[in-house]
Input
Amino acid sequence: MNTLPISRLVGSSEYRAIADDTLKDEDNAAWIVELDPKIREQWVERIHWIRLADRLAENELIESEKSQFQWFHDSWRWLKETGQVQPGCPHSKIFYQMRDRWFQDLSDPISHLSIEAWDRYLASLVKYHEKHLVISRLDQYEGMLEDLAAPFFQVLPFLSEHQWQAAGQFGTLDQFYNNLRDLREDAEQGICYLPTELLDRFQVSRAEILSLQAIKNPGYRPMMQFWIHEYLPQLHRKAYPFILTPDLHPSWQMLRDWSLHRYRRIERIFRRCDYDYLRFPKLYWQEVKRDLVLMLPGTFGSSIEKSAKQTSYLSRTSKLFQISELNRLNHHQPSDPPPYILNAG
Output
């Protein structure tokens, strides 16, 4: 087994851009190191493409001249239009990989869908990586989740054509949890993805979120309770076709199980810290470090027996999550409702 942490395999940044994504990538994708090497190679390849594009787009926010992302995007458009790698383009190795994966047989529906998904992903990075971004309405917020995360998930390997839309909906759910997890980190960078419609409903200002003062506003906690216990379940319902699909590739089953465990952890720790987005990161990343040791012993000290227990644990976590979600859907209950009635205003 290759025991190199996933963050090193996919080229996570360590304060080379806006933030250090090393632990974040381990949190999202450490399960990949458990895959068969040939399967793992394709996952690492795609995640590296995504990570690089995302990094270049973030750097564009702090660069005054033509950014590397613009060169990257132009090189992609050249490849899409000609089927050939642009001579002398930056990151040519990645574009040769894309050419070999997607442009050898354009009659293949998966290749066509992958090309369109990657094109949509880069376009969404252009749209949403801008200074002073403000999302006005709830439907625009969900549109942002779909634009960024659905194509992100759809360019990953080993999807079948009939799973395409469902994988995109699961990606939308995943992006919500990432935004929730990174609420403080984003605020410290001058970013607030919470839509104005939500903030106004609970009389919380964007300035309070960005200045890390929102926790003092009486409307903040009811807003976060609504966000997690009433709005989020709507995204879960749309993701059920993917969560419950019986014929996912084994690597996608691992992604699903690992992700479901991560989502529950995010919700649990937000409740534990009484929805305080200032306290959340310290508690959350402490638990992530603990889980990485307990759940992926093959990466942090090899043991076949422990690895088998980890796989069984993830499987049980996924099954229990699916059962609880179905029960909640049938009874129209919010996820882990607070012990009092929410006044949403």
In short: DSSP finds 15 helices and no strands in the chain. The radius of gyration is 20 Å. Confidence is low (pLDDT under 50) at residues 10-19, 299-314, 316-320, 331-345.
